[in-house]
Amino acid sequence: METRKVQVTGGSTYTVSLPKSWATDNGISAGSVVEFYPEEDSLLLTPKGDEERTEGSLDITNLEGEELMRAVVTMYVSGFDIITLETGRVTAAQRRSIREAAQRLVGLEVIGETGDNVVLQDLLDSSELSITNAITRMRLVSLSMLADALTALIEDDDDLAQDVVERDDDVDRLWALVSRVFRSVLRDPGTATDVGLSREVCFDYHSSARQLERIADHATKIAIHALELGAVPEEAAERLTTLQADATDITERAMDALLEEDTSRANRLANDARERVDEVDQTAREVDQAIRELDPQQAQLLGLVVDSLTRSADYGGNIAEAALQKAAPKP
């Protein structure tokens, strides 16, 4: 760490010198322009960039299928605005995988293709992005998936179960968007200004979005089990419905706490959500006991459903923890 003494020039202007090593490493010289970003009692400084778009390239010669799609998602989440995928010859299968990956991501479009490369560009402006809107949408979709997955299980509705499985892509798309914005906020103070949230709050929202994405994954697991199971006994169905309602209520309260500006109300909601997690664990043990009397294969699959509902409640508890951190006094 280096320190500098603040000086006064012209009788009213405060000045401070920049460390020469930092200036040299970042191409700063006489006449260069730097940007300042106030963040509570801190002032962040960064060189003013010449390029509005961040470009990146990737050799995809040995990539195909899911591996290629993951590579595209990684470049997107890392914050590249223009992504050039290069190889000696882009195969038809690679083009299909690239297009499928782009369709799973918010704002990413194929803007150019040649025989040896495919160029994608993020068409969204950072000032148009809202982590708050994204996690609110994730909340609605993931919890509706959880409710519909259980309904599909109890009513033996394969069409509804398949619909839940397909909706998981919507949550994944929003999760990738939140991750992209979060990483951009960490890397570039200007993005934090555009988003309108501090980096600490973005961290809390990002970690909570991860919990919502996991809830959607467990809703998908329940929907897949629903496709394998037949009718569920009435008593087991009632207990599972209670468990799902409790897990949903915990997550709803936790999300309300996370988005609440009044710290006392946020603490009250978050603590209430955390306390209810223990109640869900007790209910889950009772449900497990009840389904042991069923057919072994049916009992095994329903046991997995109970596990998914319990984990969903735990993820809601994790969101409540993030809400408590967000509402806590700052040191």
Topology at a glance:
Blueprint: E1 7-9, E2 13-15, H1 20-25, E3 34-39, E4 42-47, E5 55-59, H2 65-78, E6 82-86, H3 92-103, E7 108-113, E8 117-122, H4 131-155, H5 158-187, H6 189-195, H7 199-228, H8 234-259, H9 263-291, H10 296-327
Parallel strand pairs: 5-6
Antiparallel strand pairs: 1-2, 3-4, 6-8, 7-8
Helix pairs in contact: 2-3, 2-5, 4-5, 4-7, 4-8, 5-6, 5-7, 7-10, 8-9, 8-10, 9-10
Protein name: PhoU domain-containing protein
InterPro entries: PhoU, PhoU-like_sf, PhoU_dom, SpoVT-AbrB_dom
Organism: Halomarina ordinaria
Description of the molecule:
The protein has 331 residues and is an alpha+beta fold. It has three domains: 7-47; 55-126, Translation Initiation Factor IF3; 128-327, Up-down Bundle (Methane Monooxygenase Hydroxylase, Chain G, domain 1). Helices cover 64% and strands 12% of the residues. The protein has helices at 20-25, 65-78, 92-103, 131-155, 158-187, 189-195, 199-228, 234-259, 263-291, 296-327; strands at residues 7-9, 13-15, 34-39, 42-47, 55-59, 82-86, 108-113, 117-122. Helix 9 runs antiparallel to helix 10 (296-327). The radius of gyration is 25 Å and the shape is flat. The protein starts with 6 loop residues before the first strand and ends with a helix. 36% of the residues are buried. The mean pLDDT is 87.
